[in-house]
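Final report, closing paragraph on structural work. Over the funding period we assembled a curated collection of sequence-structure pairs, and we close with a single example.
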Amino acid sequence: MPNPFDRPRAAFVLEVTGVKDLLPLFKSNLFTNAFTEKVISGSDKAEIRLPEEEALLVSLDEPSASDFASLSDDEIGKFASWMGGSYVTDMSESLKGELTFPLGNGRKMSLHMSKEADRQYIGSLISLVHGVRRAKDMHEDFSQGTRRPAELIKGCFDGIKVLKEEQGTEGVAEQGLLVLLATLSRSYDLLQEAYKGQIVGVILLGDAASSQSDSLLDVTFTSRPSVRWLAETEGSANATKAAEVALVRLTLAWVTGLILLISVLLGVYLLLNMPLTRDTLLYSNVKLD
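Its predicted structure, as stored:
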């Protein structure tokens, strides 16, 4: 029987823009045990607040890797081989070759690096893989230490949206989605192996932009008061309470003293102004003959 308290301490969250149809997702083995939920949201974002000392945010968005100018034919060739595809370089000019991915059932997707949309799409895929491997390395470093924070791996993929805007056809975008799912399947296998299965994957679909301000998730960190700060706060509260008690006691002492002083003065005044009669002399223990 599974332990309900043995929960994963890591989550892989990827926003995929430009995708609304969920049907192609269920054709992948990656989503065999997955479930879907349709959320209709307006301008509101999902706010996630994490304790700063107990959580770690790993961003998959690496601008340097998504910049196609920073890539090389060798790096693209290694990525194609890792995905089971091929990359034919252009001998006359670098970064102008043709990249081919198998899609199954005898189909394939060809991307020409001379096209701007294809370059951005490949740059986004390689950036995603780099981010996953970076998260894997960071987890291995933290797993050897005494501090074991919860981890949130978060990123956004705009490659499908770029293909739709540039190509204008759903067929190319669907092929790009299948290649993305194959990339996610291999990348998620790396995370499953590194985290020993203690990780949850979440894919958000929508038309949101990739900028941080338009992201569907707004992740912020909250600092938790330290033990020393709590001790100082408690000590300050105790000092304030002691000062209040001392003030009350001092006030009562002054009020009591004033009442006694007024009583003495009244007694002396009445005694000096008391008329000398037989009754008053008797009350004053004066013996009368």
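The chain has seven helices and nine strands. The mean pLDDT is 79. We thank the funder for supporting this effort.
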